[in-house]
Automatic annotation (TrEMBL):
One annotated GO molecular function: FAD binding
Organism annotation: Bradyrhizobium uaiense
Pfam family, any one: FAD_binding_3
Segments forming domain FAD-binding: 2-292
UniProt xrefs under PANTHER family: FAD-BINDING PROTEIN, SLR1998 PROTEIN
Protein name: Tryptophan halogenase
Gene3D superfamilies hit by this protein: 3.30.9.100, FAD/NAD(P)-binding domain (3.50.50.60)
Domain of life (superkingdom): Bacteria
SUPFAM superfamilies registered for this protein in UniProt: FAD/NAD(P)-binding domain
Length: 359
């Protein structure tokens, strides 16, 4: 397995439970996430319970989030009450700390190598995996959990289908004043923003737009980033309480889908299989869940000799991606105030073309 993010770690954990006789090798360099602030949707706790890690998650001290505030589709601010959610609240996490904890807790049964896969070749029994200084290993099945890089699939000459050019311009700030800890999402003419508390006086501010628009706005420069921030009403009000703001960083955040290689013992999980637009709020839960289902498919293939298991997993990934795309289009079209602006026009035209009988 290449990668130790939520998807790869969940797959390793589930394999240890479902197929304990299998040896799992996890190849992943130690890396830090560039963005820390994230909210886990109410879909995440059931997966953590399924993996037997719910009590350990609660012990990390992450804060529940019972409200999400949005300025979307209208000028006012609305609150989504998660106290009434049957699945329970969302959870505010420092994503870097969550990933470190989850990788350690979930992949404890795997052998981890601090390296990257430098070469991948098919052989009679499966795969020959070259990990550089980490040595060469034989694998009956490989799992690509390398996120948006799709490192293993790309080595097989395949590329993911990009759905958009979304990027995140991320910055953290420090404040000595009390600010609302809840997630706040606000649309503006060139995309949308979100902000949330990271605890200990730190706050995350993120501008989401397309890569070409980000270049035009110069979102990688403080003056361009601040100019875009002034286009918001509610998020800029919170930003005015920030005493010191770090330089913004641009991070790829677009939706993508990687078709499953047919006839290979190779599975993609998490963002390597399908990357969701962050507006969905389900990225981490989706990644962990795909890791769980991939583990079941791998176990059925290798232990039970079920030749159809990998195809069933690929079909599930495709169905999930299709359902997500339909929901995403519906959500974006609900914001019509700037329908003539490039960011919103692209998403509205996607809706129009997808609903056309000639497509």
């Amino acid at each position: 397995m290449a990668g130790a993010g939520p998807a790869g770690a969940a797959a390793a954990r589930m394999l240890a439970i479902f197929a304990p006789d299998l040896r799992v090798l996890m190849v992943a360099p130690v890396e830090k996430r560039p963005c820390r602030g994230e909210v886990l949707s109410p879909l995440a706790p059931p997966v953590l319970r399924h993996l037997g890690l719910w009590s350990a998650f609660l012990a990390q001290g992450f804060a529940p989030s019972h409200h999400t505030f949005t300025a979307w589709g209208e000028a006012g601010l609305r609150s989504s009450e998660m106290l009434l959610e049957a699945r329970g609240p969302a959870w505010r996490v420092d994503r870097a700390r969550f990933d470190d904890w989850f990788a350690s807790a979930a992949s404890s049964a795997a052998t981890r190598i601090d390296a990257k896969v430098s070469d991948l070749e098919r052989d009679a029994d499966g795969w020959s995996v070259d990990c550089g200084d980490g040595g060469r290993h034989a694998a009956r099945l490989v799992i690509d959990a390398t996120g948006r890089a799709n490192a293993l699939v790309r080595r097989q000459g395949r590329r993911a289908r990009s759905q958009d050019r979304l990027v995140a311009a991320y910055a953290e700030g420090t404040t000595s004043e009390q600010t609302a800890p809840e997630l706040l999402v606000e649309a503006f003419d060139d995309g949308w923003w979100y902000t949330m508390s990271l605890g200990e006086g730190r706050h995350a501010f993120v501008c989401m737009t397309d890569a070409d628009i980000a270049r035009g706005l110069r979102l990688n420069k403080p003056h361009g980033w601040h100019a875009a921030l002034t286009k918001t009403h509610f998020i800029s009000a919170i930003a005015r309480k920030i005493s010191r703001l770090d330089a913004p960083r641009l991070v790829a955040a677009g939706g993508r889908f990687a078709a499953m290689p047919v006839g290979f013992r190779l599975l993609c999980v998490g963002d390597a299989a399908s990357a969701f637009d962050p507006i969905s709020g389900h990225g981490v839960a989706k990644a962990m869940r795909s890791g769980v289902f991939a583990a079941y498919a791998a176990g059925d293939c290798l232990v039970r000799n079920d030749g159809t298991a990998l195809d069933h997993y690929g079909a599930w990934v495709a169905r999930e991606a299709a359902a997500y795309e339909a929901a995403l289009r519906e959500h974006y079209v609900s914001e019509s105030r700037w329908a003539d602006r490039p960011f919103w026009r692209r998403r509205c035209s996607d809706v129009s073309s997808s609903s056309s009988p000639h497509q």
